[in-house]
């Protein structure tokens, strides 16, 4: 089962400095049919103007993954962490018992991110933050794990949930398979390009809510960059 969610159907709000599109209910956007997908609670497609960003604000008991599509995002938190994450790279924050953080676009140009929230397996643990570069060339023609709650994914950023975030870059005509598992929840978005997923066509920034699909075959109709969450 693949439920295509066209980009034009997403909720959202344009605040001037921030143009936010929401794949699931978030802030002022509420759709009872889109409250989450398995343990995935939020997938926001944010465009952030230069010199602006999110001032310090709190989070607790949520795994928050930021995938930078263009530009860079600068993070600072109440744990003393400061980091700048560039396009193609990833940062993760396990909010745990509570943390305050800010995220700003300190760049001269626009920054575009996917921010994904996933419910944690346990609550009240000490908060943490981490970031890592993931060169787009290293995922050419294949899925690479960026963040994971599974110990076997040693090269990925750790998160505290039964999920993994993977990404691939495909040239037009290339295909890559991902063994999702029929009992898992997948949510897939092409950051760029047009693709087919098990025969379902997706345009750039469309979402696909996936269930009861043992294996995903993703084929690029044009050059594409794909992000997928595999969750309980």
UniProtKB/TrEMBL annotation:
Residues 8-118 form the Pirin N-terminal domain. InterPro entries: Pirin, Pirin_N_dom, Quercetinase_C, RmlC-like_jellyroll, RmlC_Cupin_sf. Transmembrane segments: none annotated. PANTHER family: QUERCETIN 2,3-DIOXYGENASE. Belongs to the pirin family. This is Pirin family protein. Residues 152-230 form the Quercetin 2,3-dioxygenase C-terminal cupin domain. Pfam families: Pirin (PF02678), Pirin_C_2 (PF17954). Gene3D superfamilies: Jelly Rolls (2.60.120.10). It comes from the Bacteria.
């Amino acid at each position: 089962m693949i439920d295509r969610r066209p980009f034009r159907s997403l909720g959202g709000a344009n605040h001037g400095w921030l143009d936010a599109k929401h794949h699931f209910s978030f802030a002022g956007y509420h759709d009872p049919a889109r409250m989450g997908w398995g343990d995935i609670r939020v997938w926001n497609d944010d465009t952030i103007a230069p010199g602006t960003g999110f001032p310090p604000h709190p989070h607790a008991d949520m795994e928050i993954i930021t995938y930078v599509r263009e530009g860079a995002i600068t993070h600072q938190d109440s744990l003393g962490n400061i980091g700048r994450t560039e396009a193609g790279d990833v940062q993760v924050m396990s909010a745990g018992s509570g943390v305050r953080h800010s995220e700003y676009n300190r760049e001269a140009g626009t920054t575009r991110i996917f921010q994904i929230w996933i419910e944690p397996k346990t609550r009240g643990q000490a908060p943490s933050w981490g970031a890592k570069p993931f060169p787009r060339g290293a995922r050419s023609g294949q899925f690479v794990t960026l963040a994971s709650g599974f110990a076997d994914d040693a090269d990925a950023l750790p998160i505290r949930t039964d999920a993994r975030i993977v990404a691939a870059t495909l040239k037009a005509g290339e295909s890559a398979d991902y063994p999702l598992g029929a009992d898992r929840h997948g949510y897939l978005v092409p950051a760029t390009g047009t693709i087919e997923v098990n025969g379902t066509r997706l345009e750039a920034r469309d979402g696909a809510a996936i269930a009861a699909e043992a294996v995903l075959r993703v084929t690029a109709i044009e050059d594409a960059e794909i992000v997928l969450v595999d969750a309980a």
